[in-house]
Amino acid sequence: MKKLLKGEYFGNHYNKNQFNDLLITDTEYTHKKVDWHYHQNPYFTYLLQGKLFEENKKENYYLNSGSLLFHNWQDVHHNIKPPEFARGFHIEMTSDWFDLYDIKSFDFEGSIHLENPLIKQKMNAIFLESKVIDVNSQISIDMLLVDVFNAIKSNENSIENQTPIWVEQLKEILHHSPKTCTSLGNLSTLLNIHPVHLSREFPKYFKTTIGNYIRTQKLNKALLLVAKNQLSMTEICYECEFYDQSHFINSFKKMYQQTPLKVSKIIANVNLLQF
Q1: Which of 178 and 34 is assigned the larger pLDDT?
Q2: Does domain 2-159 have CATH number 2.60.120.280?
Q3: Does domain 211-268 have CATH number 1.10.10.60?
Q4: Cβ–Cβ contacts within 10 Å for residue 91, how many?
């Protein structure tokens, strides 16, 4: 079975950025099929474009643009890529990085499929930071990454503490049927709980308000569409269900500190490197 060393991924790299104990790559996947393998270091895969099928020893995933996975170093898996273009963003961490921030990598065994939009928003911020490298990039990325692991651990603890059934039902609705989230009353009816109870308990399990959770999902989707550079800003605005372009731009800038157009230019300013 093949062991991939630090920075090894199957494809062509747009960027490879080495930080202290961190390696960040932006990669176009070129192999139709990748046989069973594992990586030297734990890493995140954030699928920016396209689709992938991934299978490990316990489960399998059909991944679309916006899918986020964490793989620990011992996670053995294989991949199949459809004919369409596929691009992924990776963050690879050495054991020294985990030791520095007192994070125990063995607390995150195997492969974890991360759907929380608050975690994805932090991953988007890391992605953008990796495109604007300056003296502050290292500390910014480290802080965001520590926040990501804290959020994953918090979510794992919530699962272990037996969250109510309605929480998992609501996650399913928010992630896969967001258009049904028209009002607090509608959601509470779907979940068969009182709207006051839903309003009070939601931040306990989701670490934010319902409105911000849904808004973050929309902006995560918008950033990926901006990265693809295939739609106009007006088309992205309506694809992500914002009221108008002004509302979209203001919301985007508030979250990412840049306008969508500026982010598009930042992301486009890369050269394809062959490895």
Answers
A1: 34
A2: yes
A3: yes
A4: 25
